[in-house]
Amino acid sequence: MINVIEQERQNRLQRTHNNGDKQLIGEGGYMSPNEHLLEDVLLAVTLKKPVLLKGPTGAGKTKLAETISAFFQQPVQSINCSVDLDAEALLGFKTIVLKEGLNSIEFVEGPVLEAMKKGHILYIDEINMAKSETLPILHSVLDYRRMLTNPFTGEVIKAHPDFSVIAAINEGYIGTTPMNEALKNRFVSYSIPYISGELLEKLWMDLFPNSSKELHVLMLNLAEDLMNQVKQGLLSEEAASIRSMQYAMELAEYIDPMRAITYAIAEKLEDDQEKKLVIELASSWMK
Description:
CATH superfamily of the largest domain: P-loop containing nucleotide triphosphate hydrolases
Order of helices and strands: HHHEHEHEEHEHEEEHEHHHHH
CATH class of the largest domain: Alpha Beta
Number of strands: 9
Number of domains: 2
């Protein structure tokens, strides 16, 4: 571990959080597909650089963010982006409250302001699902200024020293838009691939220690086949999602594996030929 990362970790571990915020600390468990990836992302967070995780759905981007949270014992404020995301969803909103029998207006802070003030990790999931005109409000938060003027109250917020930003994108999916260059240039970017081989086998053993050896072998072989078909362009990336494979594994502990694979993987695909290919690949490993 690079010294500066461990020093930063020890500094952040000195902090205390209230019981509510403690519930927002991740559990960890991300398995890095190469020896440098996790440490490299931790270094960027240590140096207070906004991190962008790029990769297919189910590759473990959220799990990686949770692992960083666990490493630093730092709560996470999450934003799930969509076309409906607006400034209020990011920053907060005004509301009327009753105080001592009188109505008064108060501002309820959103995840961005909470993370900035408390020194939490701000996790922005599927950031490229948001409308391009919504996100420029974060530019000053993401660059060297690390500050924001709240347009609803006029308050100037300077980020806590431990404040960190991690964003994730699924590239090329329906409903996504290319990231604005001004926004993209504020991030350090990392590609997050699917795990495979021995790493995937270890993950399966950790998650499903009581499953039969036959089921483990089936799912590992199917995972490798699906990834190979994705690389050849015969299947969309979501077909090889580790999350979907995990769901299939969980179902297969109680029902026929073929049905589990159909429900958790094949039926999620839009293309009938892709569905058929998944079923054929799975069938080839059935004894």
